[in-house]
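Margin note from the TA: students keep mixing up input and output lines. Inputs are the sequences; the output is the structure of the whole complex. Example:
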Amino acid sequence: MGLVWLCLLFPLAGFAINALLGRSLPRRAHGIIATVAMLAAFAVAWIVLADLLSLPHEEQHRNLILYNWVPADGFNATFGAWLDPLSVLLLLIVTGVGFVIHLFAIGYMAEEEEGQRRFFAYLNLFVVAMLVLILANNFMLLLVGWGGVGFASFALISHYFFREEAADAAVKAFVINTLGDVGMMLGIFLIWVTYGAVDYETVFRNAGNAQTGTITAITLLLLVGALAKSGQVPLHTWLPDAMAGPTPVSALIHAATMVTAGVYLLVRAWPLYELAPATLTTIAWLGAFTALFGALIGLVQTNIKRVLAFSTMSQLGYMFLAAGVGAYSAAIFHLLTHAFFKALLFLAAGVVIHAIGGEEDLRRMGGLRDKVRIAWVAYGIGGLAIAGIPPFSGFFSKDEIIYSAFTSTRGNVVLGLIALLTGGITAFYVFRSFFLTFYRTPRYGIGHGGTEAEHGHGDGLHQPGLEMRIPLIVLSVLAIVGGWVLIPDAVHLFEDYLEPVFAYPAAFNAPVHAAGGATYWMIAIGAALLGAVGIGAAYYLYVLRPALAADLAGRFAGIHRTLFNRFYVDQLYDTIFVRPTRAFGRAFSGVFERGLNGLVNGAGYLVREASVTMREVQTGYVRNYALLILGGTVLLIAYVLFTAV
Amino acid sequence: MVDIIAPEIDAGALTPLFVVAAGALIVLLLDLFIPPGRRSFLGYFALGTTLVALATCVPLWNNGRLAFSDMVRVDNFAIFFAIVTLGATALSILLAIDYIQLADINLGEYHPLVLFTAVGMLLLVFANDLVLFFIGLEILSIGLYILAGFIRGNRRSEEAAIKYFLLGSFSFGFLVYGTSLIYGASGTTNFTALATALGDDQVRTSPLMLVGLALVLVGFGFKLALAPFHSWTPDVYSGAPTSVTAFMSVGTKVATFAALLRLVLTGVPTLRENWAPALWALAVVTMIVGNVAAVTQRNIKRMLAYSSIGQAGYILVAVVASDSPRRDTSADAVQSVLFYLLAYTFMNIGAFAVVIALARVGRERLDLTTDYVGVARRHPFLAGALAFFMLSLGGIPPTAGFIAKLTVFRAAVAADYWHLALVGVITSVIALAFYLRVIVLMYSRADEEIDDLPRSVPAPLAVVLAVCVLMTLQMGILPAFSLDWAQQALFVVSR
């Protein structure tokens, strides 16, 4: 078990080598060093898993202490790892998915002249911080990782700092995440004041020894941090903008790992959340709302990465919803499958973007099916998984959440219906982007001279190399089979694996949701059908109709009427469906953006005014200063004499 | 006839102080023989002096004693502060070596003045008597008055010096008057004797005593820049040469906090019902004023001036908490003061070092809204270092500043001053606004290429930066060493 420190050490060494010695190394070496470090960490993670599973079920929680970080009595902030099935699962996801994305990045970044060293150093640093966050055995250390991933993400978003949007996006991400960190800090302070400790063991054991009001306050403050990190409404605005970073960064940080930290925190601290029903209700509704909200906005996006960013927001909403209705294991299950299929979607999008010379606009793509076949297959698999089509992984994890939203004691029909409906919309908008990218006629500008000779292709497209293909293949397989670890009424691997997490401390027993039975399958089949309808609608609108229209218009002038009708239908669609949705989406994002600014500015306004007033007192005249000192002296004497009475 | 008994002289107890004083005199003399072009040698000599003085502190560790008729107390507590003060002096001298050439103030008396000021600081640290304390404070202040106005002909620098001098004299009047009242009430100015005299209820409740104490606290408040005695700070900090600002923002605070702890814990511990509420009120006002006023500052030196006011407020929280009648709680509070001051030394000097490193001949980069935008692109290392110090000053883990705030707030909560800790946490959040603003500005995109940045960082500055970054990081990740050291420094002070 002690080997777990190697998981931290390898990426740290990778970071150190690239940062300190990198200048003297050849350009290709940076990526290889970083990737090998990740592979080593991933290998060690499996050993840790084996060690953990060799323990009896009820002992699968270990508090490994490396050294006493803040040596103070009654504080218990050690530098240590909390190993249980939950943290080890996340360890595997971060190092595993991290490894394949690092590998992908070698190819993706290969043509960058400078900045590779910086890129890979920060990528490794991010992994270190993320692992600290996951493995921490107390809230203080968690906060270190929490701040660390925020910083690394900030640095990586601004990788292309010479682009204005990248610099602005980085600042936005930094500010909103710091807002979240402040919430976390206050929450941890309250935990410490309440329980007299900050380590998980003490806090969770004594969770019930505080008043419900206090626990609600603690959990809400922690939630602020979780909302900011996971891009949930109303702290979501940074996530879409963060797409200004390189695509591997979007895949690793803003899809597969960092943004799920909020979900991890909620599940990690379940003994506290279980005691704060009001917070859980808040989480469930915020999650459901974000899921729907993200999906609706996703409908109208024209940038492929932004479509995926809003879908990430929406999928994280699902996870929050699951945690909010008490289905913690369902939340983690979706976290797992989402890490696979969303990383896959991003990397496939990355291949496309890479192929057509950095273009990210869906309106300038199209017809790429046969040009970059591997991306087509990969994006298709990822799309089917996110749309919840059986037997792809998303089917199992998403239905688990929809089922919980309907049937859990904390869930209700409205939450369930939102989850169900969002599934259909998700299928539609993801496949909209799929069809716009890969079907119909090419709309991208060809003519990237010079690349033809390099790649030996006549079409001028950059074809992905082996280091980019392997990650796509691996993630494709995982996006298909990743969900098979939990098939209701058949396979219970995942539930059994996570069970020890919710059995400790033994005093509480959160229900591990055992889905199954006729209700489940009805919901599951309904959701899958809805997904299929969404895909069909997208196919009809973005593939069939335009082709048909062009065909008919060209051959038969007499069927102009039909054409007109089609146009009419299109308009109708536009009026009753697309336009209201778009308006709805716009209005909402407008209202929220403004509301958020107002809120932040309101608090800032007070401080600023006070500050300006203080500046006015600071006249610069010695006589005024002397008067101030004299006044202070008089007050102080009066005060001391007063306390003596 | 009264027999005059020659007091016993135990010069060994004050070796560090004598070394620094002798060094200062030698540097003054050396200046006569060194051609102006090679004056940086004076800086290195002064640096050597402080290092030798640091070395002479070592044998005094765990070898505490009273000396000079109980006027001087040398114990682990004093040695701890002497080491920190000398360390801060050494770093400030390194900072100044290139800066004073840049600012065209490379005169022979710069380094001797710094060393004389350090002598004053050491006197404060070792003082066991209000009179000696006053003398130390005067030596320190006179040095700083001159240093603040060292850029002759520069109106802002001269204004800083004259303001500092006038207000300093004004508030020292209170200090002297307070001392005389305390003497009048108790018949002594010696901390040890004072504690004994206060055993008498009549002395303890005497209004003379209380007013005297309040007036002495005013003197401390001025020197520590506690609100509402802080008004001089932004003007003086921004007017003085940056290397001097760095020196006085750290050295003065460290030494004066040492004296304050000495006074309240060994001199007037029995008056804790009187001084604790007074310091409590000062701490609250100081935390709020310092951190709120910093938010709208445009000049980085003024911002750091307000920041240092706020930081003093946090340290004062722990001083208040040291009034706890529970021995271990009190000890923890004092320990957190020591740790905080150590952390503050490195992060604050580090921040000023970056400001100095960005300066060029005839032009310092002080305006946050114009001079710092996009600096990260040209100087990723310097921007990274400044960002790191800002995070530390803001109390973000894993930095020294985080652990320091943590231990202070912990001490406050343990001593049942949780409301002080709450004010501390809230003002820390406000403080993030101006600390993080620097980072955001540095990493934003500049509208136009910045081309008047210095190409490289001179070696002495690089050393300072390396030391400060490493120490700030080390105290954040492995605080146990420093905390242990601070713990051992409590050896004698606990009552």
